[in-house]
Batch of 2 targets.
Target 1
Amino acid sequence: MTSDRPTNQDQADNHFEERLRGFRPIAPRELAIPPRPAPWTALAVAASVLLVAGASFFARHSRQSTAPHSFVSPPVTMGTLNAALRDNDETFYRFLDDASPDILSHSQRGTVLFELGKE
Amino acid sequence: MGSAERSASRMKFFARRKLRADEVQPLYQQHGPGLLLYARSLLGRKHAAEDVLQQVFMKLLEQNANPEEPRPYLFRAVHNVALNMIRGESKQIELADIEPWFEAPAQDHAARVTLTIELMRIPEEQRQVIVLHLWGGLSFEEIASMLAISANTVASRYRYALQKLRAAMQPEGSR
């Protein structure tokens, strides 16, 4: 016949377990958690990048629009050249001067005029 | 479903979100002493054990999930990291490293040193079980799942450990 009543051995074990539980493990040192960047920091970084990109785009755009070669000269056709030649030589040569960068670019790498222009 | 499987399924992760520092700190406060004791019972050296805890909690902060049941998860994580450290350094607990693992209870100042030494002396598998159960608060089933052994084996290891400690810690006159 078995009994559910605790034996002396069980009681001794329980008592000893309680005694052991009375010993409290030493606590570890403080947890050193590196600070995580706040969400607004990421937003600020993104805004700065956008600002710099926008500024650089604006600067490039404004430089291009003020560059001399962006001057829009009238299209050179045989008709306009004939008319200019009939008026006077000065108008005719001015037309040719204006159109020449487009026709024979000396600023484009690889062209003969570019190579000659370096010398 | 077996008890070990049930226990394992309880330890699965919710893939939800990262834990914040203010959520991790209370876990550290609550389980830190038991985890440190367990790490020291495997490694011996206090600094190495504390490094293990730091690693485990940093990982907990970095991963994009949080454990459903933190206690078994944390003990398992400490177990794995400590064993990796042992494999890497091939170090064993040395009695020369002894610093008490426990705060002194008011009535039992010298006993904490004795307990530390006796814990170091018993076989590692018994030491693991008794530390995890008594000071880690894990059930035999949870320990069985963590160590991949049966709950009966856990129970018998626990009994052996308890007997040895009790014999060693009895006052001289009563042995």
Target 2
Amino acid sequence: MASDIAIPKFELKQTSGQFSTFFVADLFFGVDVHSVQEVLRFQQMSHVPKAPEVIEGLINLRGQIVTAIDMRRRLKLPPRAADQEPTNMVVRTDEGAVSLLVDEIGDVLDVDDATYERPPENLDSAARDLIRGVYKLKDRLLLVLDTERTVNLTCEALRSAR
Amino acid sequence: MQDQDVIHEFLVESHENLSRLDQEIVVLEKQPEDAALLASIFRTIHTIKGTCGFFAFSTLERITHEAESLLSQLRDGKRKLTPSLISLILETVDSTRTVLASIEANGEEGPERFENLVERLRQAAQSPGKVESQTNSDLVPAPLTKTQGESGSGETPEGRKPEKNGAKPSAATDANIRVGVGLLDKLMDLVGELVLTRNQILQFNTEREDAALNATSQRLNLITSELQEGVMKTRMQPIGMVWNSLPRVVRDMAVSLGKQIELEMDGTGTELDRTIIEAIKDPLVHLVRNSCDHGIEPPEVRTQAGKRAQGKLTLRAYHEGGQVNIEIGDDGAGIDVARVKQKAVEKGLLRPEQVEKLSDREVLNLIFLPGFSTAQTVTNVSGRGVGMDVVKSNIEKIGGIVDVFSRPGEGTTVKLKIPLTLAIIPGLVITSGGERFVIPQVSLLELVCLEGDSSEKRIEHVHGTPVYRRRGSLLPVAYLNEVLGLKLSEQADVVSMVVLQAEDRQFGLVVDGINDTQEIVVKPLGKQLKGLTVYAGATIMGDGRVALILDVLGIGESAGVLTESREQSRAEAEQKSQARIEQKRLLLFRAGSFDRLAVPLSLVARLEEFPRSSIEHASGCPVVQYRNRILPLVPLRSLLEPGTPSHNQASDPVQVIVFNNNNRSVGVVVDEILDVFEEAVTIRQKSTRKGLLGSGVVGKRVTDFLDLNHILQASAEAWFEGADGPASGKNILVAEASAFSRGLIRSGLDMEGYRVREAANQNEAIRRMEQEPIDVVVAAQDLPPNGGATLLEAMRERPEWKQIPVLALADSIDPVQSTAAQAAGFQDCRAKFEREAMLESVARLASATVSTEMEPVCAGEEK
């Protein structure tokens, strides 16, 4: 699976192995399959008043309280249709398990490192922070999501919500 | 007797250490250069030595002491490790074991003194060359051999109980396993989750009628409860752990006070969570000391009173209703209610007439008031000097209650009620805006239900701020829906309010509904939500959903019922209100001969009462410590009527109106707060008197309006004028390019009370000076664009700025630069980061000028 083409070193660790994929609006994302703890259908959520707006609420994951982040809002995309229930994709991060609310779960894909490229410079700033790179798959582009950054709600994100 | 547990612990620990030593020494033999290993061995021996000294095990102490000296030389590389030295160390280990075995069996070290070993260790440490020959030639025909310590399998003949030694594992280690606290905490967490799951299943069970499920869930229920109890127990420690030190405390106190005190301890085995054990340690010691000191009388007094000469101090601990009760009782003289009253009045905590109204029980509880105890320091960890107020607050911090009972002549008992654990706490479940929240029971004072017609009336509004009249005093009220930005509920007939306590302040929180109380398992929130101060955590309810636990302090602050968070809007309001005072609600009060004074209520941050004793003086101006700040007080009497005494001496506590201005608070001392009045008033007559705006008619009576600006100014002047020679409140302009340096300079000046303006370059500096008068300019020599000197030149060109002194700041100072600076026309030159010198210079320059903006007015000075 690994290609012969040399890949710049700094990108190596991010581009190996399999990716769990999902959709947010019309975007096709992938995260390292090892960082995904589990995928759950939509859970009842407790709303957290005063929290940053990207935080949809808290879910009870077998006794563990997990924060759910709405990926649409995180990426500053328009809200999903009212009848569309998001799916919880629970990822492990340095800050514990966090649930990402995505539109739909895709397959687990093996990707060819040769198709990797860094994100285009003209990407919208909300997305550029969170996208590590792009795999040029045959029929579409797979965006590699930086989960650590996604769950790290900086002051800026908090401020905009208050 | 009580040392038994400690010795037992010592034995367990030492046995473990020694077995590790065996291994380490064997490894060391192969790698004699391993410094880390040597250091570890040294530490182990050192620890044993230290503990031996503590228990006065002299033989063991001597052995380990000599071994330690030898090891320290090895560790420091002063000598090489030889096989014979290793043997010697191993022999030490074996001998130590022998002694430990004896201690375990008989509680003492045994007759063997190990003189020979000690001697050889000493010699080995002193003279490097001899060690080998001595061990080999067996100079001393002592009955010790067996220096080959193959993990202690050999017998050591010198021990009284050799069978306790060596291969046979010690009984002390047998019955116990040391488990990390982290693991126990993890277990506790898991059990917490299990409890929640159990709750869910039970709920599920009630919805179905399935006999099998019913039976199974019942069983699950029982097992879970038992497991919870069991795991809780693993974190439990007997209260005897804390009590162990008390006999000594009592004995020492008794000796030094010349009293005879017998200590009786009952319920030593009563167990508490380890976190709680830690928290009650100091308060307990303090209470015991207190009983010895103030409770039990000297022998002669006791015999006269017909009691035994020996006083008795009783400690009792027992479980009761899911809590632990601890009683500290003495059979002393009891608390003299009359004296407490007298002391409370003397200390200015209460007025005589207030004291008279109190019941005896209330009087007893006065001893917990801050300021009542004679102790001044509150931070001593050893438990000395901790006042009763700190005892109380420490106990309350962990959700406990302190109560005191006393009978004259028969003694005093202090009763502590302590929760068993902190991980599972009782909480009140409430709803607001369709969400459930939990309020920790600890912060809850009472529930108030306002029903029917009165409900709307009873929450009144003071300038838009809701308040509730609770037994005669005003309680600030917040609406949870508003605080959390939830959707507002429809006007209900019934208003539910919880009265909460955060630190020492109380407020009412209106919620949509009050459900019930529950034992909840506190769980932390994810990092993404850590910034939200309004939540203390989250928990999982019986239906499996998450509920947030409210942080009462955070809620209070966020609602503005606790802090000056509305400072800004107040300051803005102030500016406007000065112009149209007539529409405001007014606070009426009395000071000196002014029977009716008024200020707009919106400007009032808070009404406070301070006991007269809490008023201190900072350089001549009265101040009080107020919420970790120093609050300058302005006695209104002497401000309005110079020459009169500043206080109405009779009034205690002192009535103070607190105003906020920017970041500065000022307390205005008045004689009496009269009323809050709302009426359209107009100022009919301008006042010529300083401190008054004018007069108007309020409530059909003529009322004087206070000039708040003047008061604030006066306070600033008085406060800072008194504080430090240079008339502060002066405007200092700091012209410096680097924001970091500016900040440094500024912080120093701020502290001194100057008003600091900043400029990053010359143009900005000039703009600043055009905006407002500046008293002293502090200019960096490297100020952009062309240096501080050009700013100076520019200033000297304008007549109005000619006189402003300019202090040059250089990166470092040398005589050449200094002279050059003065030649250029700077009044002084200082190094940028020599704060003291810079401040001193600014002070000198500032005092040479007359403040351009504010006349220096001191409180009480009529101008």
